[in-house]
C-alpha cells in the first residue's frame, strides 16, 4: 500500500470517528429532551426540506464560479427578488383562475429576476472583468447590499404572505404518516430541486451553450481560441444563476413569510452548502445543501432553535479545516497544483 492509500485510509477513519462522536453527542443531548425515533425523523425531514432550498441556491453559486471563478454573493438577492416579484404579480387583480394566475406570476418573476441578473453582470462585473477576483467578489457584496436596500424601498420592511402551491390558500395541506407531519409544500420543494438539477445537467451536457460554458470553465484561453466568448458565458452564467435563485425563493415563499431581507440568511447558507459540495459540482451542491439542512436542524433540535444559524457556520469552518475540497472534491497535491499553472 503506497503513501497516498495510507493517507486516504487515515482520513476515512478520522471522518468515521468524527461522525461517531457527533452521533453520540446528538443522542445524548436528545435523550435529555426525551427524544425518540419519531422526533429524530421529524427533525430530519424538516432539515431535508430546508436543505433542498440551500441546494437550489448553492447551484447558483456553482454555476457562476465554474464559468467566471467568482463567488457571487449577490445570489441571495436573487432569492429575495424571486419571492417578492411573485408576491407582487400574484397580488395583482386577474380574471384568470388562481392556479393559472399563480403559474404566470411565477414565470414572470423568474424572467424579471433573470433579466436583473444579466444586468448585474453587464453593469458591474463586465466593466471590472480585468480586476482581481477579490475585487469582483467585493462588487457582488455591494450588489447584494444595493438590491436589499432597493427591496426595502419597494416592498417595505413588513413580511408578506403567499399561498401554498397545493391548496392555493394560506393554509397548506398536511400529511401524517406514522406520527410524522409533512407539509405538501415540502414535496414541491424536493421536486423542484430534483427538476432543476436534471435540467442543469441536461443543459451543460447536451446543449451548445451549456457545452460552451463548460469549455470556458475548463480553459478560458482555450475557449477564446476556438471562438467562445468568455464575456458572453459570464453573462449567461449570471442569468442562469439568477433564475435558479429566484426559483429557490419562490418555492420557499409559502413556508417563510417573504421579506426584503430573506436572502441574507438563505444566501449565506447556500454559500456554505456550495463550499461543502466543493464549489465546482452541482450534484455536490445538492449533497452539501441536503447535508447542511439535515445537520443544522437536528443539532438545533437537540439544543436550542435559536442556535440553528450558528451550526451552519460551524460546519463551514470544519469543512474548510478538514476537507477544503468539499465532499465530492479531490485534494490536489503540490505537484498537481504547480502543473496547473
Task: Describe the protein.
The protein is mostly helical and 341 residues long. Helix 2 crosses helix 10. Strands 1-2 form a two-stranded antiparallel ribbon. It contains 13 helices and two strands. The chain has a domain at 40-263. Helix content is 73%, strand content 2%. The two termini are 30 Å apart. The longest helix has 32 residues, at 37-68.
Overall structural class, as computed from helix and strand content, comes to mainly alpha
Uncertain regions spanning at least 5 consecutive residues: 332-341
Mean pLDDT: 88
Overall radius of gyration = 21 Å
Pick out its properties.
341 residues, mainly alpha, two-stranded antiparallel sheet, 2% strand, 2 strands, 13 helices, disordered C terminus, single chain
Concise overview:
The protein has 341 residues and is mainly alpha-helical. It has 13 helices and two strands.
Draw up the topology in text.
Elements: H1 3-32, H2 37-68, H3 75-90, H4 98-125, H5 133-155, E1 174-177, E2 180-183, H6 184-206, H7 208-218, H8 220-225, H9 230-252, H10 262-276, H11 282-302, H12 308-322, H13 334-340
Antiparallel strand pairs: 1-2
Helix pairs in contact: 1-11, 2-6, 2-7, 2-9, 2-10, 2-11, 3-4, 3-5, 3-9, 3-10, 4-9, 6-7, 6-9, 7-9, 10-11, 10-12, 11-12
Amino acid at each position: 500500500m503506497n503513501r497516498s492509500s495510507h493517507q486516504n485510509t487515515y482520513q476515512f477513519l478520522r471522518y468515521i470517528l468524527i461522525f461517531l462522536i457527533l452521533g453520540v453527542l446528538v443522542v445524548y443531548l436528545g435523550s435529555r429532551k426525551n427524544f425518540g425515533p419519531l422526533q429524530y425523523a421529524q427533525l430530519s425531514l424538516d432539515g431535508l426540506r430546508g436543505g433542498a432550498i440551500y441546494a437550489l441556491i448553492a447551484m447558483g453559486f456553482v454555476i457562476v464560479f465554474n464559468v467566471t471563478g467568482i463567488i457571487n454573493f449577490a445570489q441571495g438577492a436573487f432569492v429575495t427578488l424571486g419571492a417578492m416579484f411573485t408576491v407582487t404579480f400574484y397580488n395583482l387583480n386577474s380574471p384568470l383562475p388562481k392556479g393559472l394566475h399563480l403559474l404566470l406570476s411565477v414565470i414572470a418573476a423568474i424572467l424579471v429576476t433573470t433579466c436583473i441578473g444579466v444586468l448585474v453582470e453587464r453593469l458591474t462585473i463586465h466593466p471590472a472583468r480585468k480586476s482581481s477576483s477579490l475585487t469582483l467578489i467585493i462588487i457582488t457584496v455591494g450588489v447584494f447590499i444595493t438590491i436589499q436596500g432597493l427591496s426595502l424601498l419597494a416592498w417595505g420592511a413588513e413580511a408578506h404572505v403567499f399561498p401554498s402551491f397545493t391548496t392555493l390558500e394560506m393554509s397548506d395541506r398536511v400529511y401524517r404518516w406514522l406520527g410524522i407531519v409533512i407539509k405538501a409544500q415540502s414535496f414541491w420543494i424536493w421536486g423542484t430541486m430534483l427538476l432543476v438539477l436534471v435540467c442543469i445537467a441536461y443543459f451543460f451536457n447536451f446543449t451548445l451553450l451549456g457545452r460552451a460554458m463548460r469549455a470556458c470553465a475548463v480553459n478560458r484561453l482555450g475557449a477564446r481560441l476556438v471562438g467562445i466568448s468568455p464575456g458572453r458565458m459570464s453573462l449567461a452564467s449570471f442569468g442562469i444563476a439568477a433564475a435558479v435563485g429566484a426559483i429557490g425563493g419562490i418555492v420557499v415563499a409559502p413556508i417563510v413569510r417573504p421579506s426584503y431581507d430573506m436572502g441574507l440568511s438563505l444566501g449565506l447558507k447556500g454559500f456554505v452548502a456550495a463550499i461543502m459540495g466543493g464549489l465546482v459540482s452541482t450534484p455536490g451542491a445538492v449533497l452539501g445543501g441536503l447535508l447542511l439542512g439535515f445537520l443544522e436542524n437536528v443539532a438545533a433540535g437537540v439544543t436550542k432553535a435559536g442556535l440553528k444559524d450558528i451550526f451552519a457556520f460551524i460546519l463551514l469552518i470544519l469543512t474548510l479545516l478538514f476537507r477544503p475540497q468539499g465532499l465530492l472534491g479531490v485534494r490536489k497535491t503540490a505537484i498537481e497544483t504547480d502543473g496547473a499553472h
